[in-house]
Fold these 4 entries.
Entry 1:
Amino acid sequence: MARSASPDEATALFDEQFYLSRYPGVADAVKKGLFASGFQHYELFGEHERRVTSKETHDARRDLMLGFCSLGKNCEFGIAQRVFGAEPMDLLRWAFTPSDVLIRLLQVGFERIGDPNEMDVYPTPAGEYHIRHKGYQFAWHAWVNVGETTPEQIKDREVKRLPFLARKLMDDLAQGTRIFVVTQLDMTPDAAMEILTAMHAYGRPTLMYATQGGPPRVVRESDYLFHATIPKFADEAAVPATLPSIDWLAVCEHAQAVRESGAG
């Protein structure tokens, strides 16, 4: 798993042209004379905000986030990956999966996950299509707005997509190189262990369960179970606008360090 650049390294790698291109608002502020340069903005604000300073920093953060796999609950971690340029093809990245549903999926090997008779495509009040699997009782984003295509076309796409991604997820579980992530406000160690037990039918992957409250950090609770804390999760009604992306980056950096060191 790639190591993300430290703040000192990010400063050393600072690329003025890259920074202004990536952050047009900063470039506009420099043109107006509010900052002498992009680097001045970074020193005053950008370093604290963990802004990307160069292509090398961007690539390191992207590669770090690709080393994690969301097992659902909601789309918060998937959006955090997107913020840092990581777009892994993961089955449950955009899904709403309660713990009991996740355990059942793992126990039955995602059997009939692509059955078209079990899928219901429906519009949300926000004008986006969601898909619901009636057999397993979970839903996920289609990332298609009403009017852009038809429910039948979305279903045809999912019938092909889901079995492929299910096989990929089982392969990832067997290889055990990525860290798997579940988020829940008040998940207990026992509940997390139930999920990990189901995961270990495939190999010896590591599960990181994240709960709300406390600084962004990670503690190793057992050989394959990590507990992460986030000060505050995103508002489920407005995840992109309220996403604590910097906290998620810090958690992933700490998880990587904990895994590599073998320490808690």
Entry 2:
Amino acid sequence: MAILLSLRIGMLGMSLATMTGMLLSGLVFDACGFFNVPVQPFGALRAVALVMMLIGLAVALNLPQHLKKHGHQISFTTVLWFLLGCGSGAMMTTQGAINAIARVELHSVLFCSWLSLIVTMLLVLLFALMRRQSPLRLLTIKVKGRYWIFIGGFVGATNIAANAYLVPIIGAGTLMTLSVAGQLSCALLMDHIGMWEQPVRRVQPAQIVGLLLIISAVALIRLL
């Protein structure tokens, strides 16, 4: 889904849409107690925190500058793709809540992660076969010393396990906000130093301010 969204609305649009979906759905899950998530009422402080998060997200991703340059290209179709991206972000929240239930039923974070990864593998294999793409294509990958390209699976498994463990403890809203803050921090660092063959894009002070707004929102939700 991320690849498809990036092709349709660009990396910025994809990031903004999925993160917005994660933030909003996390607070909704907390307020409604979906999938046995601990209920945390949506009050005035959480409303302020939500506004801070959305502003921080827009600033960290340089949204005002992007709209100034490309705002005239936004169409109804673009809005629909953005909403689809928000739905994709909400699915991440849903996955974390469901995996938390699976962890309790299986009495194991590891087996919960294993179950999720098996289902994912089978679905991807099915879609590949439907598109007549042989899994043997994996054998043609050319590493050329870049062995770090294989850590994506490790990162995914770690994310599944962490979500399953943390959702019941800190709630979906806080977890999704922390996830967004972590993603942005890592993305800014990777851009700034050109990590893993990424082009160097120096971090701007405004982006740091945006990130600090998101971190402040987390503190507002958890400490007050």
Entry 3:
Amino acid sequence: MKRNTPIMLAVLFVSSILFTNCKAQMTDDSLPGSRTVSVTGKAEKEVVPDIILFNITIKEYWKEEFEPGKKYDDYKTRVPMEKIEPQVLAQLKDLGVKDNQIKVLTVGHYRQTGKEALVHKTLQLTLNDFTVVDAISKQLSPRGVSAMNIAELKHSKMDDFEKEMKIAALKNAKEKAEYLVESLGEKLGSVLAIAEPQFGYANPVQLRERLTYAKSYDSGNSATEIRTIKIKYEINATFAIAK
């Protein structure tokens, strides 16, 4: 009898494991959430930005560039930054841009073949209205201005929009789950899981080529065709199918 004891214990142990696994599987099948539907809810909104970062690049140039009949070899009279910058700032002030809305972003030099180095500087304006952007692009003198572009569009209430889009996306997920389940003659149960991806918005300046104005730009054009920020949000949700 003693020799058979280990064998009997092993048999009992294996039987216990099999019974436990079988019982767990039966329990899983009886869970209310075993019949589920998983969907992705989406929400989208376009808002007009109230923070516009607008860059203006100014540079030294040759006086002869704007004189009829002059060629590259004739460029000898440099117009310095000390003369160009005050003129640009004065024009901006006349267009309603305040000093605290302007900051120097970059300063550098560039050299043309056979000529002395010229200074260039990028000013960044923080604006709140596209009418000012349009006025600058149309009225700022092209002399000494090499480029203008919108660097970034933002909104001061982006946190509020984030919350709004999350709620809208979750509601959209529920609506989608309801009509899918009801099309099969079933009813939707309670939500079991919500997976929240990182919130984001599509910055139109990053997604599209920046609209840049060289000194030969058409003053009749508006500053940019980009007028809104498109905010998109997706959320994954799993719902029970009611029995």
Entry 4:
Amino acid sequence: MSPRRTVAVARLEFSRQWRRPLFWAFLALIVPVSWAIANGPFAFTGEGAAAHSVAIARGIALGTALVAGWFVAIAAGLAIIGDVGDRVGEILHSTPLLPEEYVWGKFLGVLSIFSLGVAANLIPEMVFFEVLGSSQDGQVLPRIAKHLGDYFETLVVFALPSLFFTAGLSFAIGERTRHKTLVYVVPVALVAWLAIVWTVHPAPRGTPIDTLLTIVDPSGYRWLSENWVAPHMTTSNGDSPMTLDRLLATNRALVAIVGATCVFWCVTSYRRSIGGDVGAPVPTPDVRRSPRR
């Protein structure tokens, strides 16, 4: 597997997604949704020492799960389906490009552009939380510098694994079924699943069922809600700083492993679907100059 050829495919897919209206619709929607979660009707009004950090994590985690996940699922699921009509599989037989290079390149191209979009959304997030959502005037830059680590920590811990999982799952379903309808069902099914794992609260907390629901939450928001959002609704329970634990680490690792497994499965499936000795060097015909008469 050549990293150079994989990156070349990823760059082509990145530029293709950049020109699609789907990506720009995602950027146009995630900004007002982020405002609604940060300062609008769904804003977090908790108290305590770590309330601001919890609000930042909550805003980015929810925005990624409900908006970015929806769009990346559609883009990833249609990535290979769109190439079927162009008969890309037949072209692979005449090039040294391997199926794993093509599959991983397509997937990374989709994942990278939507990860960039979520990362770029940190700028309006900072405006919403540090400017519009703060009563302290004249201290914008010190507040941003103080909480800058919270933004990037949430991006790495919550947003990127969620994108990886959603893109990988939809990518596999699109490649395996080649049906656009099923691709559009993926984000609907994921939102329905998130509604279940976010709202089911077995009593008492800490039971095996509660732990299982936390582990199978691809967004990680259930852990955030159970451990930090609810306690910080009151000052008495919200004085401790926000820290991560093994349960969340297990959840995020499992989410990433499932996403990667889906892509590896696509490599095997795609190689089998196009058949032939793909990636073999193309023989050069022996053309000899005919003697002049």
